[in-house]
Amino acid sequence: MKTEVILINPHTKSHRTAEESLALGYLASTLRKDGNSVAIIDGWLRNLQSFDIVDLIANQYNPSVICITCYRSNIDEVSLLISEIKSRLGDIPIVGGGYGPTFHDEDFLESGMDVVVRGEAECIIASMIESLVHGRTLSAIPGLSFKKDDVTVRTDASKSLVVLDDLPYPSRDELLLSMARKNPVHLCTSRGCNGYCSFCSVNSFYANAKKRERWRQRYIKNIVDEIEYLYQKFGARSFKFVDDSFLEPPRDEKWSYDFANEILKRNLRIKFRTQIRSDRLTLPMAKNLKSCGWFATSIGIENFANSSLKRMGKGASCQNNLQALDILNECEILTQVGLIMFDPHTTMEELRENCEILCRYNWVITKGIFTEMFAADGTAFTNKLIKTGKLQTAPNNQNRCYEVKNSLARRAYSILKKWHKSHAQLYDWVVDSVAAPKVMSAFGYKSVHSLCSQLLAVDLEIFRKSVDHIRSMPEKTDREFVELQISSKRHIYSLIKAEIERIYAKEGLCYDGILNPFL
Length: 519
Ligand code: B12
Ligand code: SF4
What we know:
The chain is of the alpha/beta class. It contains 19 helices and 17 strands. It has helices spanning about 20-35, 50-60, 75-90, 100-105, 105-110, 125-135, 175-180, 200-205, 220-235, 255-265, 285-290, 305-310, 320-330, 350-360, 380-385, 405-420, 425-435, 440-470, 480-505, and strands at about 5-10, 35-40, 65-70, 95, 115, 145-150, 150-155, 185, 190, 215, 240, 270-275, 295-300, 335-340, 365, 390-395, 400. A seven-stranded mixed β-sheet has the order 2-1-3-4-5-6-7. The chain starts with a strand and ends in a 12-residue tail after the last helix. Bound molecules: cobalamin and iron/sulfur cluster. Iron/sulfur cluster (SF4) binds near residues 193, 197 and 300.
């Protein structure tokens, strides 16, 4: 046996609910293949706070290295966990990775991590841990950040990316726990994306990926073998494909036919959910995928105004968006659209266009339609804001903000944000069951979908009224206007709350999210 390694997902305060971590699964199977002894502690899934996690380690393990997966948004929990580890277990090296540490390595080193791994890790994790425990230099290992004489050293990020078919299947130590929480089983069939959306950090995450490596896929047999293994060993029937973009060339109509055929041939009666781009989907593809269990997807619509899509660097046009939605509607796929309504250059005309189209496509599921573009680190959008001195730090330290330039659109942003905040927790609660998604009966999905439509209908009514209000009334009346709207709709939200409580009880679900910290 080589080294004893503990892999941790910390407890997290989020409006989202706990799901299994495929990152830890892949790291565990890679390290195990190399002969190391590995334990996974998913503090979020097991509902263990930092103190309990360290208790568990102290009582049951004797690790040489502790690895933590995290986001920027749970840095407070991570800091607490690290100080608990340091004070009770001594000086065990602590390694961090995931999107948070990749784009905020300084912050995580500051929180007490000894090493941060930037980007994908399977290719270096075993050699990095071996060097770390034997006190050898880390400078020849690509994609690391660490402190040397108080200065942050970053080794070259251009490591070779893994060939997905060569990876061992991710370990599934915490899977039954996740399934008990009515989560579908996560599966990763591809990594990366060929798009260039200005707000997205996926491509800078796979730093320096060569053109043909920007989207890497697994072969059909490899994917379906893993599905079959999970089907037989764990009774898995519901899957969530966590790919950044499930349909990229060469996944075409023939691919979707072959994929469906392989699943049907093996008699695997599954349901699965995906994340797709609107400019990749055709009707034959949708029909093929539906035939083998495709039942839900999220789709990166972002906006319905071409001027706005152009600013975002989206490959898709409004026409692509509408066509994809028509296909999804025809195939009765439960569709959650990602929307970005505001960015620094939003205009009233764009808002009107969006409102008009959403009124026609009022069957889609949204997490709220008034979202602004998230200024994530490593994106072209954020880099430009930094360069032009327009990026501000938000008071809650969760999202950075900027000003919407057009004064009327800025008023709309402020009104609609206040409006959304007034009932955001209920919104997240309703949507989590179909967006996560949780495993429910057909009746459950239908009932929640109907609640989502009610939420959207009220949003659209307020959207229209706000646009009219801004056109005809001065800014000083905005506050009174939005407060009046909020109080006039309270009764509707009470009814929706009662209904979602009833559905959750019937479906055996539990929502333990907190108020969205990004608002
Ligand atoms: C499933 C998922 C979730 C699940 C979490 C499941 C879990 N426990 O991991 C849920 C729904 C809860 C979730 C929540 C959020 N998510 Co999320 N999520 C995903 C998703 C779709 C799949 C993650 C996955 O399994 N990937 C496959 C694995 C194998 O890849 P990986 O996680 O990147 O892990 C590799 C490396 O990162 C690295 N690594 C990861 N951890 C560690 C740890 C160590 C020690 C080391 C060495 C290496 C390492 O090695 C792994 C193997 O190569 C990704 C998109 C994607 N396709 O990755 C978004 C994604 C990661 N999420 C994202 C975001 C923004 C969030 C939220 C902040 C959303 C929100 N507004 O609340 C929250 C944060 C919650 C929190 N913890 O604070 C963004 C991150 C963007 C960014 N720049 O930060 C992504 C990229 C989606 C996107 N395109 O915008 N998410
Ligand atoms: S299509 Fe989606 S995953 Fe691809 S670059 Fe755009 S936002 Fe990112």
